[in-house]
Design goal:
Number of helices of chain A: 6
Shape of chain A: elongated
CATH topology of one domain in chain C: Four Helix Bundle (Hemerythrin (Met), subunit A)
CATH architecture of one domain in chain C: Up-down Bundle
Structural class of chain C: mainly alpha
CATH superfamily of one domain in chain C: NADH-ubiquinone/plastoquinone oxidoreductase chain 6, subunit NuoJ
Chains: A alpha+beta, B mainly alpha, C mainly alpha
Number of strands of chain C: 0
Distance between the termini of chain A: 89 Å
Strand content of chain C: under 5%
Strand content of chain A: 5-15%
Radius of gyration of chain C: 22 Å
Order of helices and strands of chain A: HHEHEEHEEHH
Oligomer: heterotrimer
Largest interface: B-C, 29 and 27 residues
CATH class of one domain in chain C: Mainly Alpha
Radius of gyration of chain A: 29 Å
Strand order of the largest sheet of chain A: 2-3-5
Helix content of chain C: over 70%
Number of strands of chain A: 5
Largest sheet of chain C: none
Largest sheet of chain A: 3 strands, antiparallel
Structural class of chain A: alpha+beta
């Protein structure tokens, strides 16, 4: 049995390990603490940190949101609600848009579901309130005047809106095929 | 007239000791958090007041204003009174601890101890053994598996280590030839007992650390497995009482180590009360240092250490001390 | 009545009440708690009678050790909600009543017939030193016999607790 033979050795080893441990923690007393003091020093968070949700605008300063309800459907805690509406030129928008931040878990699924990059999460996390009802954000609170993480993207340049005139003027859109001809 | 004066004096002493002890316990929490965080290269509490000095006050206010929950199915009566047992048994031990030389006032000598019992040491044991009830009953009455397991572990641990605690102090009694804590301090006039009884000192220190369930021995409240052990279900000031009891016991333990092994209030130059405080603080700081360094023992390791190492060592120490005393005496 | 008498009868009342409550409780843990209270109230009575050592040994041994072990076992029992029928209780209490009757009669006979019992007990202060002297000088044989018994019990406990065959030591176990 190795345990019986080396008992003295093991006791010595244990004592040495104890002293090493106590010495290490003792040395720590004289080291500078590595704590970041929060309100005085705010550590810059990575741009993709998930906190307060915003609704962004496209480069033409139009609302990106097309009120497709995908974010609302994907939200695991059902904190997003909205009412869709349509403009005269056929472009959809949200008549009202509401996020209950007291329920939001900042999972980012709405951002992933959004086809127009309208809904985005920002690194701004200091949203605490004493009253729960003040955490319900309306569209005016959510809407910002910039493009968020992607300033260039414009959904309608890809998907198109019903416009007068020729088709095929959008990005990645082919010219309409002439059905009456079989020429290439 | 003398009878009345005696009672008034006793009440004053009780009040002063109680206030000092409670304040010391509250600030011990602060000292522990601050020192522990420095041992772990953190800053510790620094928000409430300068250097976070008002933190104990804030904690007390928070605990007092929190809701006092009683879990469903709990044994209400026992649940409500168990924390009191812990806090009271810890506070009562301090009654026999001498914390200074007798003080002359209007021609009478006022001893700096609440009560100089001739069985003071046994009194200490009696009340430290009663502290087990708070843990056991609190754990049982909560009607929660974590609490129950914490309570059972606490009982097993405290009973086991009480034995080695008692055995480690027998040589001290043999050297001082008295159970009275005042006499034990008096017997250390020339040199403290830690010089004569280093083994007993180490045994006492380890078993006392296990008795107050601090970190290397904190399996009754092991967070990783039992949430918080026997006080999982407690909230508000009842949790605060458990907490208070723990820290008062720390102060009491520091005082006991000072009285039994470090010469009590004796020391050169400085007044006795200051020496006593320095010694108590030193013991407490070492306890915090241990908490910042050692990991928790496993349950079998704990029992192994108690029954197979500490108790035989304590018995051998008693036999050797007795032999030496006999040989010396003849 | 002096102050001591008042305290004495107060404590005696507490002991009696706690003991009666202890044997009538349905919840076993409550019974244990009342028994502990009874022991705790008994200890100052020893102190009043001039035996501080006995008082504290009462607390340490009975309240602090034995009852804790009781509690330790009882805590693990499931909580009993169903009360047993009165018939069972009535049948079971006959031996108890009989034995209590015998011991009470014997006590009464002794108290009434012996002249020694008529004289009041004078309080004698037994300091730990005197107690030890009497115990180890006058009754040394009894102490030795008791210690031998304890030793045998210890060996028995060791034998029972020993694992039947030596188990290989775990590699992770500390020394």
């Amino acid at each position: 049995m190795p345990g019986e033979k080396n008992r003295l050795l093991r006791v010595t080893e244990g004592l040495v390990a104890l002293i090493q441990g106590f010495w290490t923690t003792f040395i720590h007393l004289f080291r500078k603490p590595i704590t970041e003091e929060y309100p005085e020093y705010k550590r810059p968070l990575p741009p993709r940190s998930r906190a307060r949700i915003i609704l962004t605008r496209d480069p033409d300063f139009e609302e990106r949101c097309v009120a497709c309800y995908l974010c609302s459907a994907s939200c695991p805690v059902s904190c997003i609600s909205m009412q869709s509406a349509e403009r005269a030129d056929g472009r959809r928008y949200a008549a009202w848009f509401r996020i209950n931040f007291s329920r939001c878990i900042y999972c980012g699924l709405c951002e992933e579901a959004c086809p127009t990059l309208a809904i985005q999460l920002t690194p701004d996390f200091e949203t605490c309130q004493y009253d729960l009802l003040t955490l319900v954000a309306e569209k005016e609170d959510l809407l910002v005047d910039h493009g968020g993480k992607n300033q260039e993207y414009n959904y309608y340049r890809y998907a198109g809106v019903l416009v007068d005139g020729d088709k095929g003027g959008h990005i990645q859109e082919a010219r309409p095929v002439n059905l009456k001809s079989n020429l290439p | 007239m003398g009878w009345l004066a005696g009672i008034i004096l006793l009440l004053i002493k009780l009040g002063v000791v109680l206030v000092v002890l409670l304040t010391a316990a509250a600030y011990l929490v602060y000292v522990e958090r601050k020192l522990l965080s420095r041992l772990q290269i953190r800053l510790g509490p620094n928000r409430a007041g300068p250097f976070g000095l008002l933190q104990p006050l804030a904690d007390a206010l928070k605990l007092l204003t929190k809701e006092d929950l009683v879990p469903e199915g709990a044994d209400r009566f026992i649940f409500l009174y168990a924390p009191g047992v812990v806090a009271a048994s810890a506070l009562l031990i301090f009654a026999v601890i001498p914390f200074g030389r007798g003080w002359m006032f209007m021609g009478h000598e006022i001893p700096m101890v609440v009560s100089d019992l001739n069985v003071g040491l046994l009194y200490v044991f009696a009340f430290s053994s009663l502290g087990v009830y708070g843990v056991a009953l609190g754990g049982w009455a909560s009607n929660s598996k974590y609490s129950l397991m914490g309570g059972i572990r606490g009982v097993a641990q405290m009973i086991s280590y009480e034995l080695s605690l008692g055995l480690s102090l027998v040589p001290v009694v043999m050297l001082a030839r008295s159970f009275s804590l005042v006499d034990i301090v008096a017997a250390q006039a020339h040199y403290p007992f830690i010089v004569l009884q280093p083994v007993a000192f180490i045994l006492f220190f380890i078993s006392a650390g296990a008795e107050i369930k601090r970190i290397p021995f904190d399996i009754p409240e092991a967070e990783n497995e039992l949430v918080a052990g026997f006080h999982t279900e407690y909230s508000g000031m009842r949790f605060g009482l458990f907490f208070l009891g723990e820290y008062v016991t720390m102060v009491v333990l520091g005082s006991l180590v000072a009285v039994f092994f470090l010469g009590g209030w004796r020391g050169p130059l400085l007044p006795p009360l200051v020496w006593f405080s320095i010694k108590v603080l030193a013991v407490v700081l070492v306890l915090i240092w241990i908490r910042g360094t050692l990991p928790r023992l496993r349950y079998d390791q704990l029992m192994h250490l108690g029954w197979k190492v500490l108790i035989p060592l304590g018995l051998i120490n008693i036999v050797v001390t007795g032999g030496v005393l006999l040989w010396w005496g003849s | 009545m002096t102050l001591y008498q008042v305290v004495f009868y107060l404590l005696a009342g507490v002991v009696l009440a706690a003991t009666v409550l202890a044997i009538t409780r349905r919840v076993v843990v409550h019974a244990v708690v009342y028994l502990v209270i009874s022991f705790l109230a008994l200890a100052p009575m020893f102190y009043l009678l001039g035996a501080p050592l006995l008082a504290l040994l009462e607390v340490i041994l009975y309240a602090g050790a034995i009852m804790v072990l009781f509690l330790f076992i009882v805590m693990m029992l499931p909580r009993e909600t169903r009360a047993p029928g009165l018939g069972v209780l009535a049948r079971q209490c006959w031996p108890a009543v009989l034995l209590t009757g015998i011991s009470l009669t014997a006590m009464a006979v002794v108290l009434l017939s012996l002249p020694l019992a008529q004289t009041p007990v004078t309080a004698a202060l037994a300091s730990p030193r005197h107690f030890g002297r009497v115990l180890f000088e006058k009754y040394w044989l009894g102490v030795e016999v008791a210690s031998f018994l304890l030793f045998v019990a210890l060996v028995g406990a060791y034998y029972l607790g020993k694992s039947p065959e030596p188990v290989a030591e775990e590699p992770g176990e500390s020394s």
